[in-house]
Write a structure and sequence with these properties.
Elements (H helix, E strand, L loop, with lengths): L1 H10 L4 E3 H5 L8 H13 L3 E3 L15 E4 L1 H8 L1 H7 L16 H21 L6 E2 H9 L10 H7 L9 E2 L5 E4 L9 E6 L2 H8 L9 E4 L5 H11 L7 E6 L4 H13 L2 E3 L1 H7 L5 E2 L8 H8 L4 H12 L2 E2 L7 H11 L3
Parallel strand pairs: 4-5, 7-8, 7-9, 9-10
Antiparallel strand pairs: 1-3, 2-3, 6-8, 11-12
Helix pairs in contact: 11-13, 12-15
């Protein structure tokens, strides 16, 4: 009888239930003394929380007239194997999402969870740049898992969205070339993270001191910078690369990863101008990188450093789009002086 009642409680769509409603879960010919005894046991085990103001049953002053069903307790009891399994996994893997899903989902994902666990035990949470196919193969041994399989859903369930970071593409870089670039003794290239800023600056390229304007497309630029030297093979004169991205944890990590591959000059005038704007909020899910942040901050004066630290600590950020078209040209000219 106990298991029958528990099964019905799990399926019951209300949080509050009366004793008489519980009685409907058992056959009509069930002795009332047995029902009282089982309800009392279920309540003592934590599945049912007594509603004190409902009062006790006159026939049995141990049982209340109404209870609140502890749904979370019911689910956790139903997933004891899930709880014990969680203790064996890497600390970064969270199984909480599976308590809200059918057990078959966990069983289906388990083969991938074990492979991800082995990966984290060996490599930790930090990831180096890789194509989406390489990342999928490193994690579970299937290069199509993140594109055609359930890879993205599984990583989200496990609280491992960060393993989808630093994904790069081997597509050619989108860039614009100034018509008189061949006259320059030093080629300067400005990389911008977002397409909106690329398009705003595109009309200013001809009058700038820069040979190219490059659309970074977020993390894709990490692969793109290698291809760019083949697309722009004019290495007989010096080449200087400038970077301008969103002022948030993600933009900072992109800059740091890119700088590790190709020396970058941080386009400071753009960032300082953003610090004078109204900040935005809503990117609290981004993971900070202490080393990248320290290196990024070292390019700024003390006052700007404090503003940036406070900004990020409060979960705020500055998108590149906070700068208007009319001021972008002036700020770009200032970058030439760096």
């Amino acid at each position: 009888m106990k298991h029958r009642i528990l099964r019905q409680l799990k399926q019951y769509n209300k949080k509050r239930i009366t004793f008489l409603e519980i009685c409907d879960f058992v056959p009509p010919d069930t002795p009332m003394e047995s029902v009282y005894e089982v309800v009392s046991i279920i309540a003592s085990e934590g599945y049912l929380l007594p509603t004190l103001n409902s009062g006790l049953r006159l026939e049995n002053p141990v049982v209340y007239n109404a209870y609140t069903i502890d749904k979370s307790f019911l689910k956790k009891e139903d997933y004891k194997d899930l709880q014990s399994y969680a203790l064996k996994l890497n600390k970064h893997i969270l199984l909480d999402a599976y308590y809200e899903l059918p057990k078959k989902v966990f069983k289906r994902d388990l083969i991938h969870i074990e492979k991800i666990n082995a990966y984290l035990n060996e490599n930790g949470l930090a990831v180096s740049s890789a194509t989406i196919q390489e990342r999928a193969y490193d994690l579970v041994g299937d290069e199509k898992w993140l594109i055609e399989g359930d890879g993205v859903k599984v990583l989200n369930r496990l609280g491992l969205k960060s393993l989808r970071e630093n994904i790069i593409s081997d597509e050619p870089v989108m860039f614009a070339l100034q018509s008189k670039f061949y006259e320059k003794r030093c080629h300067q290239h400005l990389i911008v993270e977002n397409k909106a800023i690329y398009l705003r600056l595109l009309t200013e390229l001809e009058t700038s001191n820069f040979s190219t304007l490059i659309f970074g497309a977020g993390w894709r630029i990490l692969a793109g910078i290698d291809l760019f030297t083949k697309q722009f093979p004019f290495q007989n004169v010096p080449n200087k690369y400038y970077y301008f991205g969103d002022l948030d944890h993600e933009g900072i990590k992109i800059y740091e990863a890119l700088n590790a591959k190709q020396a970058m000059i941080l386009a400071i005038p753009f960032y300082k101008a953003m610090l004078k704007k109204s900040r935005s909020s809503g990117k609290t899910n981004q993971l900070p990188d202490a080393y990248a942040l320290d290196h990024f901050l070292s390019h700024f004066d003390d006052e700007s450093q404090e503003k940036i630290k406070t900004l990020l600590a409060e979960g705020a950020y500055y998108p590149q789009e906070s700068l208007k078209k009319e001021e972008l040209k002036r700020l770009w000219e200032q970058c030439h002086e760096l």
